[in-house]
Amino acid sequence: MIKGVLNMVRKSYKKTKTRIRKKRKNKFFSYAVIFIWVILLGTSIGIYSYNHSNKHTKMVIAATDNKNQNNRKSDDNRLNKQNVDNKSSKNDKSDKKDNNVKEKGSIKEKSNITDKKDSSIKKKEAISVVIDSNKKVENKKVENKNTQQSTTEQKTKSTTIENKEASKSKGTENAKDTYDNVKKVKFNAENKVIVIDPGHADHPNLEKEPIAPGSKTMKIKDGGGTRGTFTKTPEYVVAMKVAKKLKTLLEQKGFTVIMTKTDNSVSLGNVERAEIGNKANAALVIRIHADGAANASAHGASMLVPALTKCTAPIYDESKRCGKIVIDTLTKEVGMYNRGVVYRKDITGFNWSKVPVILIEMGFMTNEQEDHLLNSPDYQDSIAKGLADGIQKALTP
Fold it and tell me: Which residues span the membrane (predicted)?
């Protein structure tokens, strides 16, 4: 194409020369033709260079595309190799796991066979152990029944069995039925003397004293009492607060009140406490305590009174009568659970008393709710009021 253009230019150039020669007189025409010839020559050169550069760029682009395709193919090959390797490694691992499972299964089967043999031997041994342990437990129960001397001051509070036994044995009998020659203490409406005995002290008193007049059985004077499981408040603190509140209410009702002590640092023996009531010839002695038990769900108030024995026969009927009225009044007014009247023959203070005596367990300090309630001043006021109202009912004709 370019050669054809050049030939055309050459021919036109030759023609223009001839014309110029023929028409030399016309200079303007000759200059115009030369100008046109130069323009045509420049355009032809531009076209040639443009086409040549386009071919070169196309070749470069094609070469780069080929390289990219080759790189992609190599990357795909690498990925395929990696996938194949991963699959082969997974297959190896699964094979190993299967082998391990099979080995474990065989081991388990063998161990199960041996375990069955061992279990049969162990069952035989366990049966013999259980038989021996049952015999030991029965022997211990017999020994505990013979040597059991629990006190309200120690507050281990595993006394439910003893309470049932005490209530079954002579708990509801009358003093006349068993002891014909006994002189009972009778209710006297003119006697307005009340003795309040706050339980325990800020330290135990491990000295021993006879559990009853003429008895060779000895018991410690004060085991220390229980303690709030949640508030950590000692029993003697709550007992003293309620006792003082009760004293005020009873005096307002016209009773003469004597406290066995007003200071928690004073630790009295149970015989000494009983003698205070005896010397005052009290119409009623009320001992103030709080309960405790291994079972944290145990709750409610109990009234302890003397069981019928030779020592307690004179005061048995009147103590039982007053205790029943006071516990019913207290639980009804305060709204607490009534655990009823419990007859006890193992309490030193009961056995040495010559006047009617009762012991109130105001609630369980091992129970979370009652522990917090017993430390509440308002609840203490309610208990004191319920006790005062119950005593008034019992000692009013």
Answer: 28-50
Query: For 315-348, what is each residue's pLDDT tens digit?
Result: 999 999 999 999 999 999 999 999 999 999 999 9
C-alpha of 119 from chain center:
36
Q: Which helix (H) or strand (E) holds 107?
A: helix 27-147
Q: Are residues 59 and 113 in the same domain?
A: yes
**pLDDT digit string, tens, across residues 213-223:** 999 999 999 99
Q: Is residue 369 left, alpha or beta, with left meaning phi > 0 and alpha meaning psi from -120 to 50? A: alpha
Q: Which helix (H) or strand (E) holds 132?
A: helix 27-147
Which residues are 360's β-sheet partners?
A: 288, 303
Q: At what angle do helices 313-334 and 377-394 cross, to 10 degrees?
A: 130
Nearest Cα to 193, choosing from 250, 138, 153? 250
Residue 194: in which H helix or E strand, if any? strand 193-198
- Contact status, residue 6 vs residue 44, Cβ threshold 8 Å: yes
* Structure token digits, residue 347: 């309490």
- Could you give the CA distance from residue 280 to residue 139 in angstroms, rounded to a whole number? 46
For the chain, give the mean pLDDT.
Answer: 78
Q: What is the CATH number of the domain that holds 352?
A: 3.40.630.40
Number of domains in the chain: 2
pLDDT attached to residue 34: 73
Rounding to the nearest 10 degrees, give the CA dihedral for residues 183, 189, 193, 196. 80
User: Does residue 110 have a pLDDT over 70?
Assistant: no
The CA distance from 308 to 175, in Å, is 7
